[in-house]
Amino acid sequence: MLLRTLPVRLSLGSEAATTAVVTIAEWTMLERLRRAVMPAALCWCVAGLLLPIPLVHFVAPPLLLIAGPVVFVWKFFTRTSFKEVVGVCPRCKGEARTMSMGGGVSDETNVFCEGCGNQLTLRVSKPT
Ligand SMILES: [Zn+2]
Question: If you measure from the C-alpha of residue 4 to the centroid of ligand 1, how many angstroms do you get, rounded to a whole number?
């Protein structure tokens, strides 16, 4: 896993935007395969466990059997993902906080401040 950092802007409503640094993980082929197999296998195992339960076995196992490959493809083709962001929250304005996050890399996403719990908008700064 290769880690790189990018400058970002954190904003919240009418509060003045602050700058932060986000860490992005770039996954290798083997890591992506490992990340994809585990949730897909979990879907299929839960589908197998739900088979003996009356009425539930009509709905949950087929959905989980379909969800397994969907999750596999989704996780396998996620080449980069956000790891964490370190910066000052526009609302609390305290010391720089480390906020954990996940999901694929996009120009704009949401992150929750671990100090005040507000949902902040994170925008990747464009190089000028
Ligand atoms: Zn905050």
Answer: 24
Q: Where are the domains of the chain?
A: 2-27+78-124, 30-76
**Rounded Cα distance, 12 and 113, in Å:** 11
Residue 3 C-alpha to ligand 1 middle, in angstroms? 25
Span 60-79, pLDDT tens digits? 999 999 999 999 999 999 99
Provide the β-strand partners of residue 20: 8, 87
Per-residue DSSP letters for 62-114?
Answer: HHHHHHHHHHHHHHHT--EEEEEEEE--TTT--S-EEEE--SB--SEEEEE-T
Q: Give the distance between the most distant pair of CA atoms in the chain.
A: 61
Low-confidence ranges of the chain (pLDDT < 70): 126-128
- Enter the pTM of the model: 0.73
Q: What is the torsional sign of CA 98, 83, 128, 15?
A: negative
